[in-house]
Amino acid sequence: xxxxxxxxxxxxxxxxxxxxxxxxxxxxxxxxxxxxxxxxxxxxxxxxxxxxxxxxxxxxxxxxxxxxxxxxxxxxxxxxxxxxxxxxxxxxxxxxxxxxxxxxxxxxxxxxxxxxxxxxxxxxxxxxxxxxxxxxxxxxxxxxxxxxxxxxxxxxxxxxxxxxxxxxxxxxxxxxxxxxxxxxxxxxxxxxxxxxxxxxxxxxxxxxxxxxxxxxxxxxxxxxxxxxxxxxxxxxxxxxxxxxxxxxxxxxxxxxxxxxxxxxxxxxxxxxxxxxxxxxxxxxxxxxxxxxxxxxxxxxxxxxxxxxxxxxxxxxxxxxxxxxxxxxxxxxxxxxxxxxxxxxxxxxxxxxxxxxxxxxxxxxxxxxxxxxxxxxxxxxxxxxxxxxxxxxxxxxxxxxxxxxxxx
Length: 407
Ligand SMILES: [Zn+2]
Known about the structure:
The protein is α/β, with parallel strands linked by helices and 407 residues long. It has 15 helices and 16 strands. Strands 1, 2, 3, 4, 5, 14, 15 and 16 form an eight-stranded mixed sheet that branches. Strands 6-7-8-9 form a four-stranded parallel sheet. Helix 6 links the parallel strand 8 and strand 9. Helix 4 crosses helix 5. The longest helix has 18 residues. The two termini are 40 Å apart. Zinc ion (ZN) binds next to loops.
């Protein structure tokens, strides 16, 4: 007698776009069996073992199933917003005048420091819900607008609480080395000491950070300062990521690769040496078309070099108040195709399998395979390229998070 394979639920009636190895690898008329929030069997429905018994069966009327989307780079927690500056700039006020009025990132730092946790949580929920509505099941959230030990930890606590308030997997990143706080003007090395000796160790000890990030740029921190931040992260047992090569080529992404960073992000000015180093280290290139678009940049990230050197490319919203107030990851997929010339298959890999890798979650998330978490999305679409093709709007979808329909 053959023993039964018992599972909680069985989902079928649609084509399953598995995204295994970064390719569609579609199973036509597929089936997914789920137990305890994980995929226990997946294949073509016709090939399903007769011994597989499900408590509940859901049959879709056609369409496709993709892995849940992973937004692997966001700054969703912040006080206030900068729509006033957006309007001022379009009315002809210069960046210098706005900065002189206390605008720019420092205005967000002030608003974030002033806001209590409940207020920050409420504002972040407002931004997170639209991302979830279009299929995001895992989101990374960075600190970086507090820039004091207390307010950086406050941001990270709010990020963790978002994952308790809504059905979504949250990964947190300590980005204390995001900008120089005004009280440390002309004392960047002193601030880096605070980041390395106090903020990162405290965030790690409190279990509030899953990774450490920094902003390597002329207007932020130098590669030498970033190297100190990475050393502090390593001492705390945390993996690293880096905002690199967004506005100039400083070699930050090569530095990140040398530290086996999970990802280097932005990368408009990355060189072939950077791409080679990232490919060798397995560091993911996270492309952020929202910031490129809003800043009206003209230099695209070197997508051909990333392909040549086998660098996995992820796409993220970079949701932030200054350069990418993006509340749609699907719009970013479209922009990655139209602005950066990714193929729709590469762009979908960029919000699934490669985005999961950029968070160190490749063993559990990002593809539809037996053993992975049962996070997936049913779309009433004829082919996955439609996810990149439709511009804006909200496509109807059914999101399954850890094996259950998310309301
Ligand atoms: Zn960012």
